[in-house]
Design a protein that fits this description.
The chain is α/β, with parallel strands linked by helices and 551 residues long. It is built from 21 helices and 21 strands. It folds into 2 domains: 287 residues, 3-Layer(aba) Sandwich (Rossmann fold), CATH 3.40.50.620; 154 residues, Isoleucyl-tRNA Synthetase, Domain 1, CATH 1.10.730.10. Strands 1, 2, 3, 4, 10, 15 and 16 form a 7-stranded parallel β-sheet that branches. Helix 15 runs antiparallel to helix 16. The protein binds zinc ion. Zinc ion (ZN) binds next to loops.
């Protein structure tokens, strides 16, 4: 255990508790996907800046789910991209005296490079200026118009360009005698124009019924309650076009107006399913709390009107502070994903983000806790286990990993109880844990397994047993068993500790384990999981390099 690291309450209890819960799990609850298709999306990010750690966190949720789902045999679609038809992006391009498309190309490239350098396993990268997206948005608009759900009206209101949305006076705060947007601290513009409106109010009852029938639609649940309360308060129709903007997707029934950026952006999730991937819809959305209303209310209503199925689930993430302060450009404390990974390594960043921060809550990012978890949990915990076991086994010419039942039974002691639980898991159970208790839980369960395996090694002292002829055989069995334990723990960690997993594949030197990939759907992981006896050609290596002391 490590000082200063928050632990999530339910992990402090024995793993047995989790497994009992799993056996009692009510299977009438939402089963995310009955078919073998899995579709998950990040929000599309504004392309006027490079991604920060909050974006990285949302993308990682999608990446880790995608990688697990491939191991469980699903055909996975993981979509991300950039939101380009935004007024604020256009304004930035003008500020930089750049051609708008050149500016957008530049940022689309930067986003893509960030995700590629972070080894995100996305399958689709959408740009909302693409012809495919434009054509699809116009098709949906026409359908909605033909249903009588779009009408013309006059709109007057306060518009915050930073938020790309209209504000009520009650949404604003006072600063220097002016009413400003609480997020952007700027006075919204008063806009009065002829717009086209979407009949959101028409769908109020249908939405409430949908929420009631799908109690797991939004996670965490307190966000869901906020959404339901907002809808029950009464929905107003919203404007879906802009008269003054010229950059955007023209309405098919009125070419003088372009589509409101949020309306067009939401449709990206369906655009990527057009042209052969229709079966992937409906999918799961991961999004930030600032866009929860658009995703949980506007988007389902738009889909109801256009005749599409509603999303399966929406996972709403919180905001990050950095060492207790709001993350902002002016404070210069924006956490940049590539710098983070370059300094600490991808695995350490991922482990920290999902061990210390709970999906759905606001979280405080701390470099000190990241460094501490890297050194004392990953390096001294997992790194040390793999290194000690593989070196000792190599030194004693061991070429077999084996689930020795007598060793397995030894894990009944309290200290090592967790180990027996983890070794008893099946792929189906891991999948259910992932879906009901999420990534944080699986990662924490895994880490308890690492601790228990280290305790096992400490208690059994195979290095002592190997020294005397009477106990050498027993010492070998312990090491063969520990190689088996390392294999199981490595397989659980493969979707989140991708770099280390690749190293462990080399360290173990087994053909089947070497074939396991979280980037494509395959059977190898499940076959490797079931191996109770396997050959190894050990090549011990150090998993984690110590960090250079900061200057
Ligand atoms: Zn704003």
């Amino acid at each position: 255990m490590i000082n200063g690291l928050k632990r999530i309450d339910n992990v402090n209890c024995a793993c047995n508790f989790a497994l009992n819960q799993l056996y009692n799990y009510d299977f009438t609850m939402i089963i995310w996907s009955m078919s073998k298709k899995f579709f998950i999306t990040t929000p599309i990010y504004y392309s006027n800046d490079i991604p920060h750690v909050g974006h990285m966190y949302s993308s990682l949720i999608c990446d880790i789910f995608s990688r697990y789902k491939r191991l469980f045999g699903y055909d996975v679609k993981f979509s991300t991209g950039v939101d380009e038809n935004s007024q604020k992006v256009v304004q930035k391009a003008i500020e930089h005296e750049m051609d708008i498309m050149d500016y957008l190309d530049m940022y689309a490239q930067k986003h893509k490079e960030t995700w590629d350098n972070l080894d995100m396993s996305y399958t689709d990268f959408i740009r909302t200026t693409s012809e495919k997206h434009k054509a699809f948005v116009q098709q949906v608009l026409q359908k909605t118009y033909d249903r009588g759900d779009i009408y013309q009206g006059e709109y007057e209101g306060l518009y915050c360009v930073g938020c790309e949305s209209f504000k009520k006076e009650t949404d604003l705060i006072e600063k220097d005698g002016k009413l400003v947007c609480p997020d952007h601290l700027k006075e919204p513009e008063r806009i009065k124009e002829k717009n086209w409106f979407f009949k959101l109010s028409k769908y109020q009852d249908q939405l409430v019924k949908f929420y009631e029938n799908n109690p797991g639609f939004i996670s965490p649940h307190f966000r869901f309650n906020e959404v339901i309360a907002f809808v029950k308060w009464g929905l107003e129709d919203f404007s879906i076009s802009r008269e003054t903007n010229k950059f955007g997707i023209p309405l098919p029934f009125d070419e003088s107006q372009v589509t409101y950026v949020r309306y067009d952006a939401l449709l990206n999730y369906l655009t990527v399913c057009q042209g052969g991937d229709e079966e992937f819809w409906p999918g799961i959305h991961v999004l930030g709390k600032d866009i929860a209303r658009f995703h949980a209310i506007y988007w389902p209503a738009m889909l109801l009107s256009a005749g599409y199925q509603l999303p399966q689930k929406e996972i709403v993430t919180g905001f990050f502070t950095v060492d207790g302060q709001k993350m902002s450009k002016s404070l210069g404390n924006t956490v940049k994903p590539l710098e983070l990974v370059e300094k600490y390594g991808r695995d350490a960043a991922v482990f920290y983000l999902f061990y210390d921060l709970v999906i759905g809550s606001d979280g405080d990012f701390s470099y000190a806790r990241l460094e501490a978890s890297r050194e004392s949990m990953l390096s001294a915990g997992w790194g040390n286990l793999v290194s000690r076991v593989s070196k000792l086994a190599d030194k004693n010419d061991i070429s077999l990993g084996k689930k020795h039942l007598e060793c397995f039974d030894l894990c009944k002691d309290d200290e090592e109880e967790c180990l027996q639980d983890i070794l008893s898991l099946t792929p189906v159970m891991i999948e259910e844990l992932l879906e009901t208790k999420w990534i944080n839980y699986v990662l924490q369960l895994w880490y308890r397994g690492v601790q228990a395996a280290n305790t096992y090694m400490q208690n059994q002292e195979p290095w002592v047993k190997l020294k005397s002829p009477e106990s050498a055989q027993e010492g070998r069995q312990h090491l063969e068993f520990l190689l088996y334990v390392v294999k199981q723990l490595a397989l659980i960690s493969a979707p989140f500790l991708t770099e280390w997993f690749a190293k462990i594949q080399t360290i173990l030197g087994n053909d089947l384990i070497a074939k396991v990939s979280t980037r494509e759907t395959n059977e190898h992981w499940r076959q490797a999981w079931d191996l109770e006896e396997f050959d190894v050609t050990l090549a011990p290596d150090i998993l984690y390099q110590k960090l250079e002391p900061s200057v």
